Input
Amino acid sequence: MSTRAKDNNEILWATQKSAANEPPAGPLLGVYPQKQNGLFMQRIKVFGGRISWPQWRKIAELAFKYSSGFGLHITTRQDIELHNIPAENIPLIQKSLAETGLSIFAAGGDSVRNISICSNCDFCSDGFDLLPLAQIVRQYLELQPYISHLPRKFKISFSGCSQACAKPWLNDLGFIAQNNNLFTVIGAGSLGPKPALGIELYRNLPAKDVLPVCIAATMIFNQYGDRENRRRARFRHIREKLGDEAFKTLLDASFNEIKGQQPWPDILPAQGRKDIKLLYRLQLPNGNIESEQALELADIAEPTGAVLRINLEHGLELYGSKTVELPEYIATLSENPIIIACPGSQTCPKAIADTQITADRIRQALACKDCPSVRISISGCPNNCAQSVVSDIGLVGLLRNQEGKSVECYRFFIGGGNGRNDKLAEQSDIIPAQDVSNAVEQSLRKLKITSL
Output
């Protein structure tokens, strides 16, 4: 069955369930309940952050029609989310997305999630275009009979050069391109309440072996993953249970067996182009952009031939060979500091803290201050959805009892490697939400951001 056929069958099932006044199909199709009764979030996979202007327009139109003014939310895995959707509108949205060639299959749930790719690897003269290789991986994995009922989610990333922009140490498998069609492979890492970053699995893996490694890893995960305790059900928990060396031996044996079963596609990564340049990096406040802004961006940029990409940090990137003149209120988004915030307690049932308000306070405090290379991440609960414990500055929400009252606070972390290496941030303190902005400014000085 083709991927499109599978998507359409799942959508039909969702439509039938909704027609019977039951909840819409759940996480496997990217649908999650919000804390507001009767409202849902629909996540949309944008493979590798590559999205066409017609697809972008369609999502913006759906947000305008069905999201009650929320707009589009850009995630840290190159997905787009629509929020505040009544249950009866989910099938209509899913049908429209399928007609535009956008996938929702495995946008959530216990499957291989959206495969992330460096947003500019095909436009980087020092990097390699990994989209064709990642597409082959996706196609083969979606054909595996177990892929939609793994023990838990499984994440794969592709980085086009040694800068490791796709954060391989946070993934179940992370591939870093080298010269000579070789890859460094990092694997078995994840965050959550008890984070553990990945380890090096292979140093000089040929490009033709990337696909067999992915199949071997997901097969091992399907066979050995814990299906009883979801807190111990990620790929890295198999590594922790076996030990690093035994884990690598098991993976290598499975890989070699699969590699010998048949000829595999040999996709050699092409060198990145030099004729396309970055025009804008738009850092969206809290990852959000209004529907009208999204449509205006398309109206202006599409006629110039500009290419739109979704990055891994709540941002949009425009690439092209011609100048694009954006209205000031959109262009100034490129001046925003990089602040990554999960949806928080405004919509997420698990969140403790209002990350959106906290992010707004920090953004206001840092206005007109030059700190472009620093990542500030805000997670509304210990699940670390904003990757706080690996960021330059990270905040993780919690509640503390002060004088008989429950007070919103944050665990404060500093000095992480942003998933580009194996460095976790160190916790420095627990800070009331109202004091976070000052603490962030002080930490930026510690990180030697001299303009502050």
User: Anything to note?
Assistant: Residues 110 and 289 are 29 Å apart (CA to CA). The first strand starts at residue 31 and ends at 33.
